[in-house]
Every structure is written in C-alpha cells, then in structure tokens.
Design goal:
Layout (H helix, E strand, L loop, with lengths): L2 H7 L5 E5 L4 H12 L3 E6 L6 H10 L4 E5 L5 H13 L6 E4 L14 H29 L3 E6 L12 H21 L4 E8 L8 H5 L4 H10 L12 H8 L10 E4 L7
Parallel strand pairs: 1-2, 1-4, 2-3, 4-5, 5-6, 6-7
Helix pairs in contact: 2-3, 2-9, 4-5, 5-6
Length: 262
C-alpha cells in the first residue's frame, strides 16, 4: 500500500472521545479507532460491566484509554463530564456518538418516561456531546471530526419503535444543521446509519425461535441476505474519522446490506 493511502486513513496521534464505547456497536468501532492509531476517551456509566473489556482492547492496540463517568441521558451530568475532560487537558480530534437505547411499544402505549428515556440518550446526549466537542475545537481553533450514529430508521418508520424513530430522525437532521454552521471552520459532521446489526441487544431476534418470523423478515428484506455484524461498521467509522473524508460533511453513510434500496 502506498504511503499516501496509508496516511489518509491513519489516526496516529489523534484522540477520540466516544459515547457508548462499551456497547455492541461501540466496542467494535472504538477498538477500530484505537487500532488505526487513536487514543480513546470513553464517557460511560460508573458501573459499566464492559469497561475493562474495552480498556483491554485499546491497550492491546498500544493506545491510551481514559474514562470519564456520566449518565449521558442527564444533560447536567454529560456537560460536567466534558468539563472534566477539558480540565484534564485532553485535546480533541474525533467524537463518536454511539450511545443508544430502545423502548418498544405501540404508539398509544408509549409513556412519557419511554419517550424521555429514548430522546435523552439517543438524541439529546448526541446533540450535547457534539455541541461541547465543537465548542472546544472552536476555542482551540482546531479542525475535527464528529461522527453520529443514526439508523436506517432515520429514513423509514417501522412499527412499535416510535420514540426511537423520532430520535434517529433528529440525529440525521442535526448532523446536517451542525455541518452547515461548522464545516467552514474545519469541523466535519457526518453520521453512520446502520441497518439491522447483530448485537447483544438484538441477539434474541436472530437466534430465539420465538422471533423466527422476525428473523426471516430481516434476512428476506436485506439483499445481502444476512444480519449485519458490528465489524461491518468499522470501515465507515475509520473513513469518517480520517483525512480520507476531509471533503465529506453533512451527510450519512448507510450500512444496511442494501435494505433501503429494496
């Protein structure tokens, strides 16, 4: 591989701040960022059971791993975590917003708590993290990359997931809005829209006989003919975090095995 191509995709010496780094999608993408050269700053719950697994992955890649604790669904807590990050002297380059939750139910059954929980984590936390990250870049007069995780549900509504659909539609739209204001200042803002990915949260739908019909529906709807795996998002996140995407902003990369095209 030529030195030019290698350098375009290298994250050597960069620092990535990640929300949701310990989750099913987050572990794969954050580990990939570390393997590409980035040091990792993880914003996570104090009792996160996957924290040490993430640390092990990052340190195996030869990168540093810092943890700051926050309930990301609480705006005050999240802004406080970013204040601590800056107080520690972290100089940011990349933000990956992949914290997310789901609440299922028919529209008429969704409670205020369901709606608040999903919007606070999936939409508001991503908005606040991008805002705090961008403000620090502007203060330092530095370029940077913001990568939000939206969904194919940003484009299609599906059923029984109305709060999630609202949140992911919002992520897609604020990505565009932030890019309009910041791309001229060297801050690229993009998002990745995964399709149906096999993670601990979705494992039951692809393996439990109870959901055989749902599993068959997903595979039949996806032209590639399978569920996605977290590793299927690695190429997109490295591209959007690296110099290779310097002229890409305000848009999304759909990683769905062709589902939206069908």
């Amino acid at each position: 591989m030529s030195p030019l191509i290698t350098s375009l995709f290298s994250l050597e010496g960069k620092t990535a701040i990640v929300l949701g780094a310990t989750g099913g999608l987050g572990q794969a993408m954050t580990t990939a960022l570390a393997e590409a050269g980035a040091n990792i700053v993880s914003v996570e719950l104090p009792s996160d059971s996957q924290s040490e697994a993430l640390r092990s992955n990052v340190e195996k890649a030869g990168r540093t791993h810092m943890v700051f604790h926050s309930n990301v669904g609480d705006a005050k807590s999240l802004r406080g975590a970013f204040a601590q990050i800056w107080e520690k002297g972290v100089v940011p380059d990349i933000l990956l917003n992949c914290a997310g939750i789901q609440r299922r139910g028919k529209v008429e059954e969704i409670t205020d708590k369901d709606l608040d929980d999903v919007l606070n984590v999936n939409l508001k936390a991503s908005f606040i993290a991008a805002q705090e990250f961008g403000k620090e870049l502007l203060r330092l007069n530095r370029p940077g990359k913001i990568i939000n995780i939206a969904s194919i549900i940003s484009f299609i509504g599906n059923v029984d997931i109305s709060p999630y659909a609202a949140s992911k539609g919002g992520v897609l739209q604020f990505t565009k809005a932030f890019s309009n204001e910041w791309s001229g200042k060297g801050i690229n803002v993009n998002c990745i829209c995964p399709g149906y990915i096999r993670t601990p949260l979705t494992q039951q739908y692809s393996s439990d006989p109870k959901y055989k019909g749902y599993n068959e529906y997903i595979i039949g709807r996806t032209p590639i003919g399978r569920w996605g795996e977290p590793q299927d998002l690695v190429g997109a996140v490295i591209y959007l975090a690296s110099r290779a995407s310097d002229f890409v902003t305000g848009t999304s990369i759909v990683c769905d095995g062709g589902l939206l095209a069908k």
